[in-house]
Amino acid sequence: MANIKLCAKCGKIGLDQLDFYIRWGNKYKRFYYRSWCIDCEYENYDRKRHRKRNYKHNYNMTINDYDNMFNKQDGRCAICGSGNSNRKSSEKFYVDHNHETGKIRGLLCHNCNSALGHIKDDTRILQNMLHYIRLKGR
Predict the structure, then answer these.
(1) Which stretch of DSSP H or E encloses residue 131?
(2) Can you give the residue ranges of every domain in the chain?
(3) Which of 16, 50, 104, 117 meets the CB 3.0–4.6 Å disulfide criterion with 5?
(4) Backbone angles phi, psi at 39, to 5 degrees
(5) Tens digits of per-residue pLDDT, 20-51?
């Protein structure tokens, strides 16, 4: 059952299920609706601030660290050398890291990042793929 809710920023009245984002994990450890409506959340979204927080939280790196790594790689994918990230939502490359140790390995385009993800960083699968391509031809 939907509840009527008032946006704390603009004062818009709306239905919580349609007009407000849902979040998990307030002090009561349950789902709750944000206090700002979706329009206000979108209007106040700061892409650079989000990127900064994401790099720090997920990789313990700064935007400056990313930029330095990008420059060391000459603005190219560490695997295929493409200068295009192939991402629909961003021109930024993916930060590739070891999921067990957290060590950052480099910046990858979408295609190379997806390929590594599909083989789960397993070099045996990668060798089998190489063997298959060589055996069957291109």
Answers:
(1) helix 123-136
(2) 4-43, 54-136
(3) 16
(4) -60, -45
(5) 888 877 666 778 888 899 999 888 888 888 89
Tell me the C-alpha distance between 89 and 115, whole Å. Answer: 19
3-state DSSP helix/strand/coil % of the chain, to nearest 5: 40, 20, 40
| Location of structure tokens 């200068």 | 83
Q: Which helix (H) or strand (E) holds 5?
A: strand 4-6
CATH number of 54-136: 3.40.1800.10
User: What is the C-alpha to C-alpha distance for residues 76 and 70, in angstroms, rounded to an integer?
Assistant: 7
Among 119, 110, 116, smallest CA distance to 92 is for 110
**What is the distance between the alpha carbons of residues 94 and 14, in angstroms, rounded to a whole number?**
37
Name the pTM for this structure: 0.71
